[in-house]
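Practice problem: predict the structure.
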Amino acid sequence: MLDLVQLRSFLAVEQMASFTLAAERLGLGQSTVSQHIRRLEADLGLQTGRSDTHHVSLTADGEALLGPARAMLSLDGQVKSLFAERSLHGRLHLGVSEDFVMSRLPAVLEDFARAHASVDLELTVALSGTLYQMQDEGALDLVLAKRRIGDARGQLVYREPLVWLARDPERVMRGEVLPLIAFPPPSITRSVALEALERAGVPWRIVCTCGSLSGLTAAARAGMGVLVQPRSMAPAGLQGNHLGQAAAARGCGIRAGGAAGCGQGAGEGPVRRDPVHGRRPAGRGRGRQNGALIRALSGTGRHRPVLSQSW
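Answer:
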């Protein structure tokens, strides 16, 4: 019989691609997680992964182990939920901004579904401003989205700067007008970028608008203009550092290194916004569902928040 604790460490390493981040997520020491993996490999007689200085990748045997490991932990969660005196049931309406969906959401949902198999999740993906409006109207129970610095709504999960990205920064900066690629209103990132440019007196033109991050990324990779994104979610194939330096030379409100230098206009997020901190009262049982998902997002006890790392 495989050890479920070892399997949980194995899945955390796979999700985070790092022993250090997996240990932080599980609230364990890195040596403990490494020991779990070594014992698992000894029991199975195989090597599950390879690691270099910055990254852990699975071997073919490790990839083959993923499905059974997830199934065993899922069954463990279902059994515990079935016989728990206060197991959670019902439906939870969750709103998530799209850029977060493209990065960390899968691992969060996997943990939540494993621990609360009887809760049905209805997921809405939209712009942060739209999600806040939907929650105010009573359509969402819990929101994970961005907010501006100084905005008191919700509970802060983590903070990071925005970066200005382009396929060919030097070519983009040669023009008289800065071409922008942006989400449509009420995008918070769009508003922050435009306010920074207005304060710096930099002419701009939005050359492409799309409600999908994949569409915006395609336009940026095609060389159409500049895309603004949180640093940890910068798409591959785009450059930011040289763009930040060039913009600073032009007097634009961008710090070298690509971060948005716009003071209170800088982005912050994502944040959790739930009925306790929003305007919608939580019904009986729904508040417990929200709390369970918040714990999946931020961890409990000595577990560090899932999103607290400086990615």
